[in-house]
Automatic annotation (TrEMBL):
A GO molecular-function annotation: structural constituent of ribosome
Family the entry assigns: Belongs to the bacterial ribosomal protein bS16 family.
PANTHER family in UniProt: 30S RIBOSOMAL PROTEIN S16, SMALL RIBOSOMAL SUBUNIT PROTEIN BS16M
Keywords: Ribonucleoprotein, Ribosomal protein
GO CC field: mitochondrial small ribosomal subunit
Protein name: Ribosomal protein S16
Gene3D superfamilies per record: 3.30.1320.10
InterPro entries per UniProt: Ribosomal_bS16, Ribosomal_bS16_dom_sf
Coiled-coil region: none
Tree of life domain: Eukaryota
Amino acid sequence: MVVRLRFLLKGPRHNRIFHMVAVNQHARRNAAPIETLAIYDPQVKGDDPHKTVQWSAERIKYWLQNGAQPTDSVVKLLTLGGVLTPNSRYHKPSTSGGVETK
């Protein structure tokens, strides 16, 4: 079974909350996830100027070690949070400005 780490949208239209979940890659978009790993709330609430992320770094690392493939947006959030290093194997290789040499 191929497992993917991706975001699942929850909440009303202008107050979205993202759940990072482990889900079977071949399951439908609205299928039940295997496990919820994180909750990311991008809305700034009240006096606190920060966005909220609650996650289980141990469970995320467990899934990554067991072959789960994260989406690009998940890789970006995990890199910002310090769970992944900036040049890990999940990052896409950078191009050399589109110039090819022969």
